[in-house]
Specification:
The complex is a heterodimer of chains A (331) and B (383). With 331 residues, chain A is mostly helical. Chain A contains 13 helices and two strands, in the order ααααββααααααααα. Chain A starts with a helix and ends with a helix. Chain B has 13 helices and five strands. The chains are: A mainly alpha (331), B alpha+beta (383).
């Protein structure tokens, strides 16, 4: 187990370091940099040429924009390792201040969605498998397929549409009630968040839930056809015990890894849904940073999202190893 | 297909005569034939395939299928509601050919919002192969459209906020959105199979490097990565060039999954006797890969590829929806849905959400076909 852990952990570090390089390079790729964006802005403000040049020089010196990319990459990544996320050129603020709450909200939404997916998908998948070809099975299979086929930004649009036409409300899914938005964090604010978050969680989680239901159903069916479940049944154990202890224990394995796999979908989904619903999470900020070519902000956000994902996968593998002795000892 | 209708193909063990002469006809089925039979058994998959073939056919000749072109603006009919063809008249009389009622435009006296009412006096007969705008398609020039009205205007699904016919735009948009899926999957199929085969067959350091690289690639959350990549495309490129680049960007991430599946299969197959004997007979790496391993892997790759088409289509739609994908004047379902983004617009013109319906049906159809293919290729499946 220890060896597996060390191996998996060093692998994760390797992936993270390559990921940091790639995310920096991708943002570097386009011709022009933040100065091009800034110059256009300054020219719109009717400043004189000297003022513009002075301003550009200020930014160029401060952010080392005239240095080759590897120098900038090194400066950027070494300060991130030290815990300093740097400074956004676009927002003129420290990045950790900018994303503090946004990052926290993104993580909260993603993890809640993950739990939502498991809590909803496992019982429904089991029911579908146990009562195979029943009315419920057909309904859930149908809903599952629709859920898989509907992109979550579309689901968000439909929710907006429904709330405007049917419910006749103008704001759809903020994360807080108006009086709580600017309050500092407190217990009532957290409760308020959870009261408002459910719609976002459903929108983000539908696709993953639909996929996981399919996996649970298929695996349960496989396991229920195994001779050992028949044996357990014949020994007179209650059906509930057969389903939950004998069958689920074995069937849960691919479910955990598929939940790990649905984590990228959840993070991607929360980014795009946040853009449609204009939620105060990382998504809209990333879009703005990418558009303005503020590469330090954009690379840092991309890195943070990927970081979440890699850690999530690591945890999924870890729980798999805990649950399944074959993985634990095989290494 | 029932057991009985299959009976004619299946070898019989009993001596029951099929033929009047008493001879038992035994017809072995080829692998392809078996797959075809199993696929045809899945009704949902067959219906989906027919639907998709029809829609690819219709969108391929979008100039002919759609009553209008995508950019023509009807300034008198901005934001007009859908006009449905009428077959039964008000008094219950049967009308043939179907007609559409014309639209009367009024202004709300207080808000000055345009209001359209059906003008039951003006009946426009709906026809097939009607004359309209001329267009060029595959070198032919014509002014015939699949359906439409010769006089007046006909907006099957209404018009958008700029007075352009929504149905025509959906047909043209469908051509782009579905092509992105097919083209992108084709690219990722080629890359994924090549890399997967090499990785599995060569093994060792090559395998290790490739697998770690794929791991890095798959560690990125796809939408943010696509966002970053799509934003790198310069604004001054032609829309067609952007379209191809978007397709390449989408397949850039997609091939990783495919390469993993193919690698796994190759690892399992490369020590089979027939592969070893091919190698020992002097076949070089490319020959063994191409003739033996590719052939054995192909069905699995096709299934995985089909199941990944929906993801590509949805990704294109999402990117275009955010304004980072397909650029006007080219339309795709994503750019059409962009109009429906604002609450104010969608509450006033609810039919602008219609492209979503076409999107969902297409994606569902690809999913069903993928499932059908997977079952059909499964060597353990019963007929």
């Amino acid at each position: 187990m220890k060896r597996y852990l060390v191996q998996r952990f060093s692998q994760m570090l390797l992936v993270l370091s390559v990921v940091s390089l790639v995310s920096f390079l991708i943002i570097e790729l386009p011709p022009g940099d933040f100065l091009t964006t800034l110059q256009v802005q300054l020219e719109e403000q009717q400043l004189s040429q000297e003022q513009i040049d002075g301003m550009l020089k200020l930014y160029r010196d401060r952010y080392a924009l005239d240095q080759p990319w590897y120098v900038r990459y090194w400066r950027w990544i070494s300060s991130i390792v030290k815990g300093d996320l740097g400074y956004s050129m676009l927002m003129n603020n420290r990045i950790d201040v900018l994303i503090g709450d946004r990052f926290l909200l993104t993580v909260t939404i993603s993890i809640t969605t993950l739990f939502f997916t498991m809590v909803v998908a496992i019982p429904i998948g089991m029911l579908s498998a146990i009562k195979r070809y029943s009315v419920w099975d057909f309904i859930f299979t149908f809903v599952g397929f629709i859920g898989l086929a509907t992109p979550n930004f579309l689901l968000a649009l439909i929710m907006i549409f429904l709330s405007v036409t049917v419910l006749d409300v103008s704001s759809v899914a903020g994360l807080f009630s108006p009086e709580q938005v600017f309050e500092p964090w407190s217990l009532p604010k957290v409760l308020d968040l959870f009261q408002h978050m459910w719609l976002v969680v459903i929108i983000v989680g539908t696709a993953g839930t639909a996929g996981t239901i399919r996996v649970v159903r298929t695996k349960m069916l496989d396991v229920l056809n195994e001779p050992y479940t028949d044996t357990a049944r014949m020994k007179g154990i209650s059906m509930m015990r057969v389903y939950f202890v004998h069958a689920l224990r074995v069937a849960i394995n691919p479910v955990i890894s598929s939940v790990g796999l649905s984590f990228p979908t959840i993070i991607s989904g929360s980014v795009i849904v946040a853009m449609v619903l204009t939620l105060p999470t990382i998504g809209p900020l990333l879009l703005r940073a990418v558009m303005a070519e503020d590469m330090y902000l954009a690379s840092t956000l991309l890195l943070l999202l990927t970081f979440m994902l890699v850690i999530g996968n690591f945890l999924a593998d870890l729980s798999l190893a805990l649950l399944d002795p074959r993985i634990r000892h095989d290494q | 297909m029932t057991q009985d209708s299959l009976g004619a193909y299946l070898p019989r063990t009993s001596t029951e005569a099929l033929h009047p002469s008493g001879a038992v006809e035994v017809q072995p089925l080829s692998f392809r034939h078996l797959i075809l039979l199993r696929f045809l058994k899945n009704r949902l998959a067959v219906i989906s395939l027919l639907t998709l073939l029809l829609s690819y056919g219709l969108t391929l000749v979008a100039e002919f299928t759609s009553p209008y072109s995508t950019q023509i603006r009807f300034l008198d009919y901005v934001g007009a509601p859908p006009q449905l063809p009428v077959v039964w008249g008000d008094s219950g009389t049967f009308i043939w050919p179907p007609v559409v009622y014309g639209l009367k435009q009024e202004r709300d006296p207080e808000t000055f919002v345009r209001i359209y009412t059906l003008d039951r006096e003006s009946r426009l007969p709906l026809g097939l192969l009607t004359r309209g705008e001329s267009y060029q398609i595959l070198g032919f020039e014509s002014n015939r459209h699949l359906f439409g009205v010769e006089e007046g205007t006909f907006f099957l699904l209404g018009t958008d906020t700029q007075g352009r016919d929504l149905f025509s735009r959906i047909v043209f948009g469908g051509r782009i959105s579905t092509t992105v899926g097919l083209l992108g999957v084709l690219i990722s199929l080629v890359i994924g199979m090549t890399v997967g085969l090499l990785s599995g067959y060569l093994g060792g350091a090559v395998d290790h490097v490739i697998q770690r690289s794929i791991e890095v690639l798959l560690s990125f959350p796809s939408i943010p990565l696509w966002l970053a990549l799509a934003a790198t495309l310069p604004n001054d490129w032609s829309p067609l060039r952007t379209f191809f680049l978007i397709t390449i960007i989408l397949s850039f991430i997609n091939w990783g999954h495919l390469a993993r599946i193919v690698r796994g299969m190759t690892l399992a197959l490369k020590n089979e006797e027939y592969v070893i004997s091919a190698r020992l007979s002097g076949g070089n790496v490319w020959w063994v890969l191409w003739r033996h391993l590719l052939a054995a892997n192909f069905s699995y790759a096709i299934v995985a590829a089909t199941l990944s088409i929906p993801g590509m289509i949805l990704a294109e739609t999402a990117l275009s929806f955010l304004g980072l994908g397909i650029q006007p004047p080219i339309v795709s379902w994503g750019t059409l849905l962009q109009d429906a983004q604002q609450v104010s617009v969608i509450s006033q013109y609810p039919w602008l959400i219609m492209p979503a319906g076409f999107l969902v049906v297409t994606v569902l159809a690809f999913n069903f076909i993928g499932d059908g293919l997977r079952d059909a290729f499964d060597p353990h499946a019963q007929l």
